Amino acid sequence: MKKVLTIAGSDCSGGAGIQADLKTISAFGIYGMSVITALTAQNTLGVNGVRTTDKEFTRLQIRSVFEDIFPDAIKIGMVSDAGNIQVIKEELESFNAVNIVLDTVMVSTSGHSLINENAKEVLIKTLIPIADIITPNIAEAEVLSRITVNEREDMVRAAKIISNITDAAILIKGGHLKDCADDMLYSDGKIEWFNEEHVDNENTHGTGCTLSSAIACGLAEGYTIEKSVLDAKNYLTGAIKNGLNIGKGRGPLNHMYRI
Fold this sequence. Notes:
Shape: globular
Helix content: 25-40%
Distance between the termini: 18 Å
Radius of gyration: 17 Å
Structural class: alpha/beta
Largest sheet: 9 strands, mixed
Oligomer: single chain
Strand content: 15-25%
Mean pLDDT: 93
């Protein structure tokens, strides 16, 4: 059985973070493991509190996984602390980790910053360069490229700018575009579009976590980045279209809709 490790924060309501990651990994028939970088008290209405994991305990978690069950791919999600970011880089490099998917969690769907400026700079300088693929949403692509992204052409321009700081493939997610939900993959100087219409469902809590974990599953199976993204996009679209309606706010997806 293939194995995927998620390094991310916990969502006690089960819609995002490591809970969404582990559900996604299981839906792909892969063995999931987790390193928790933060505890969050949150639900479909919002985040009520965050407790960051001590960096040395993060290190201990990573070593415990790699020394026993070496992962075939790694997904990195919410890491809001500079110390944890540095530890993750050090440990992944020391174990020669492969197939690293970085969900550049910086800006929430509502536009709120999820990471302080110091940690943001450390993330850009340490984790983005070691990733195999990064998956910024439009707001995060704007942070990384320092340009405004409104249209598909802007997504291409932003990806080319971001490619100056990393050799990773860059998947800019277009869920916030006005007239479509097209994602754009920029890899080795090539552009590939994954086109999709907006699904009429406001319950999209945890979509970024889900997509990046699904990509990691494809890479763990030995698929190309292009196929991994395509399969992940199809899975995510199906989970949204399933129409799960749980909670009083922006609800989660049905990660198990295929089962």
